[in-house]
Task: structure prediction
Amino acid sequence: MRKNSLKNTRINTEVQRVMAEIIRGEIKDPRISPWTSVVSVEVAPDLKSCKAWISVLGDEEVRNSTLQGLRSAEGFIKRQLAKTVNLRNTPEITFVMDQSIEYGVNMSYKIDEVIAKDRVNSKGSAVSDEEPDPEG
Result:
């Protein structure tokens, strides 16, 4: 796979920014969760297609309904993208679910749990290691 050119990187960044604004502020579909993020966007060098990685905070049902809502709003998003970003071709958008943010949040939570348990165990063992006071 070849590396992205500077031009393609700028296009990816701009499309990601605009797409995030459209999803956050202009789509009124109740299926789309307010906790939806556009993690990454990859526009093909010929500007014909675009993959957008979406992250949704919530359970599986919320993710599926958000993905359905975004797929049904593809035409609207493409039209708004064409109005905002001046490209020769407006790419066909494919939404892909990315769960890396949720995975990171869960791992951070688990690490915090382990640290808290370790602190409790170390305090408990420090108290039990002390010798009883002979005077009572």
